[in-house]
Predict the structure of LacI family DNA-binding transcriptional regulator.
Amino acid sequence: MRPTVHDIAEKAGVSLATVDRVLNRRKGVRAETVLRVEQVIASLGYQRDLAAANLAKSRVYPLVFVVPEGENSFMRGLEMAVHEARRRSSVERTDIRLLTVPPFDEGALAYALDGLNIEGLAGVALVATESPAVRRSVARLADAGVPIVTLVSDLPSARRRHYVGIDNVAAGRTAASLLGRFLSHRPGKVAVLAGSMLVRDHVERRLGFDQVMRAEFTDLEVLPVIEGRDEAETAERLVGEMLDRERDVVGIYSLGAGNRGLISALKARGLNGKIEVVAHELTDHARQALADGVFAAVINQDAGHEVRSAIRVMKALADGVDLVDGQERIRIDIFLRDNLP
Amino acid sequence: MRPTVHDIAEKAGVSLATVDRVLNRRKGVRAETVLRVEQVIASLGYQRDLAAANLAKSRVYPLVFVVPEGENSFMRGLEMAVHEARRRSSVERTDIRLLTVPPFDEGALAYALDGLNIEGLAGVALVATESPAVRRSVARLADAGVPIVTLVSDLPSARRRHYVGIDNVAAGRTAASLLGRFLSHRPGKVAVLAGSMLVRDHVERRLGFDQVMRAEFTDLEVLPVIEGRDEAETAERLVGEMLDRERDVVGIYSLGAGNRGLISALKARGLNGKIEVVAHELTDHARQALADGVFAAVINQDAGHEVRSAIRVMKALADGVDLVDGQERIRIDIFLRDNLP
DNA sequence: CTGAAAGCGCTTACAG
DNA sequence: CTGAAAGCGCTTACAG
């Protein structure tokens, strides 16, 4: 049988209250008593039963998710996943708040973070934008002891405790590898459509893409990045201009959102299916484009998995317990027409 | 606040013991009392706190995993994942037993299932082999009320309650799609290496592969399936004979195990990197082959995820509670050299 | 057929 | 600085 607080109390010759004080590092216990109890704890190999502790405490984990607002379908999917998670709140003992902030707006994100009531917060998960202001806000929360988790786009070096998302450099490399192989021996130009070079996930995908293109597919010329702000209309206009301007575009890597605009631009010129396209995020539009042969492949990250993982991670950080690492690794999902779920 | 058994007891004017009897459908309660209590339960929207119930019951879930023995690296990885899960037993309240049986041996699998002590069993997860004997054994367990989960290879129509694994037809289609595109406009023959046409996962992968090959890549000729019994030596010999016999083999789909033998056969003939290979399961050998350019792509299912999912599913079935569907969908992972984890 | 009381493993006022 | 007792939400003998 697993040892309990009763076993510790008996063996150490103290009361349950004292055992609890030592277990939870609360003050007001004589140093030598602490020592004695700790020795018993170690000798018994005691491990707290978290479920029982949470029952006794009526523990609830107040969590906050901060997600960019706007038309980006992936972000809306992320929002849906947060709402799903809220429905499980009573079972999971969570109390989840969802905040949306204007996209690509460092100030707005920092402001939202600064406005959080830190009191009792068990964790904050945010889709990060790179900026000193955001870093400062994250540092402030971290100083207050709130576990911070970055979601989808990381903010390394910052005081975040964990990143929940795919390896974006690897994703970019994978996109290049697929595109290059699909285009085997078909020289020409490859365009890159991004949202903004201000968010780290986009920057990293582009980096990985360029690495592999330069190293392995030298007969393909990569054009300068187009920044469509993850908006369908902007993407449509800019991609359209590019297609009208350039000859010999054989491939496109769409590493951000705005795929609806990209698809329109291709169709308007009868180029759907003629140009190999690798895109990100399996939204409804992307799914349709795969089925129609407009997209050759879609690289995806599972928003549901990400939200569940973020919640598990924040709770574990708040409780100081271990994670099952493999369970928290977010996969680079690759979808072709043939493995659509 | 969420209503508790105390609220029910008070509102229904009965004791906690009676509430518990009704909640757990135990007999020995007057019909009208049952009715009254049930009405109160419904009116309060009561939901049992499973953690508290398990604490009170000192509930433990006895689970059994049945996995084929032998050299198949993927199965050994599955076994490792089960051992990992055992390490979490005290936290997850599980008591996990691992049984190994000879591979591709219907009789041995049925015998192992029949030998199980059903008493109190919360679930059985098995890598299924297709056969009437296995179906009978599964039915017997199901009749005894034991939740059965198939793992990796399904046994549809049988009395299993859930399948934990990838969609193998889709996996086969995906393999064909990748291979066909990588070989674009390079006509020739494609070989298929399987373990055995007795296990459903292999049959289904082949089916999906053929579907796409016939429909989309008509300049590729698919050779008859080679059955290597998932053994490296057998695979090496049979693939070697095939390579020596056939001209113009441009691609190979390895849909089972025995990849070590396949790699040796290719290398012995200096064909590594010359023939496009799509294989299954990211074992150490497959990983190395990807890195070396011997394999173009590897389709994988995450053994850790499968074992964790099987455990969650069996516990949920035993308790009669709902699952988070998205969490239990096993992905078809596609690995290229560029997204190796 | 029904209920009072104790208990699962932990925490929390409160009293001393 | 320490402990006795009650309580978290549920279940389980035991008695009637």
About this structure: The interface with chain B takes residues 2, 47, 49-52, 54-55, 88, 90-91, 167, 170-171, 173-174, 176-178, 181-182, 184, 208, 212, 296, 302, 304-305, 308, 324, 326-327, 329, 331-334, 336-341 of chain A (CB under 8 Å).
